[in-house]
Specification:
- The chain is α+β, with helices and mostly antiparallel strands.
- Helix content is about 30%, strand content about 20%.
- It has seven helices and ten strands.
- β1 and β2 form a beta hairpin.
- α6 packs across α7.
- The radius of gyration is 19 Å and the shape is globular.
- The structure holds zinc ion.
- Zinc ion binds next to β5 and α2.
Length: about 220
């Protein structure tokens, strides 16, 4: 899939450019590892900082957040397609609901029915663990583990994160979320998942391929 990259877009911190647009492609310097920051910035740049996506109230510096439309806990990726500017109230109230559930929740007439809906949430969540049914199919490709390139060396298999991904795979027969890669197979998000797949001989990983994102290795672009 392609992400929206405005013409002339530049992401820089402390004067150092980490990413920039060129012919509709978002080029990322390989040394830069905070991919999420760029996705957050791109979301604000393309969707604005004006109003909450859900309640339409005016956003202020203090109550402004970004909501994952498909929640992180259900494998929702940090890409602009899955992010919207929201107020803290709506973001907090939505918790781990899917967009469908939150639409229903918002239409409930009163506090009691909302509380009731949340009480039934445990049941809803067990369904949600099958995240492949939650995230749109068209976002996901199956990519061969051997074709993926890790930008950082992640040898440590004793971390809590690694262990929890392994446990999830054993329990659900699937990784907890899709990974995100650029057009050449460089892993942008999901390093630990890829390491896990490589170590366990898992041949394919559900992947979001960002076709107009490219990791580059050249020195700083002169601008
Ligand atoms: Zn709101």
């Amino acid at each position: 899939m392609n992400i929206v990259v405005p013409q002339g877009y530049v992401f820089a911190k402390k004067g150092e450019i980490s990413a920039f647009e060129e012919n509709g492609i978002l080029k990322l310097y390989a040394r830069y590892s905070r991919f999420e920051d760029i996705m957050y910035d791109l979301t604000y740049t393309t969707k604005g900082r004006d109003r909450c996506y859900y309640c339409r109230r005016k956003l202020t510096e203090k109550n402004m957040t970004l909501d994952h439309i498909y929640p992180r806990s259900l494998g929702g990726p940090t890409i602009p397609q899955n992010l919207v500017p929201t107020c803290r109230n709506c973001n907090g109230e939505k918790e781990n609901m899917t967009p469908k559930q939150y639409t229903i929740f918002r239409k409930l007439p009163n506090k009691e029915s909302k509380a009731e809906f949340k009480r039934n949430f445990a049941e809803i969540r067990s369904f949600q663990e099958k995240w492949l049914h939650v995230i749109p199919d068209e976002w996901i490709s199956k990519v061969l583990t051997t074709s993926l390139i890790l930008l950082i060396n992640l040898e440590d298999t004793q971390t809590q994160k690694y262990k929890s991904i392994s446990a999830y795979y054993v329990r659900c027969g699937q990784f907890p979320k899709p990974i995100v890669i650029d057009c050449h197979g460089f892993v942008l998000d999901g390093f630990t998942t890829v390491l896990n797949a490589k170590n366990n001989g898992i041949k394919e990983i559900p992947t979001i391929v960002l076709d107009n994102v490219e990791v580059i290795f050249s020195e700083n672009k002169e601008r």
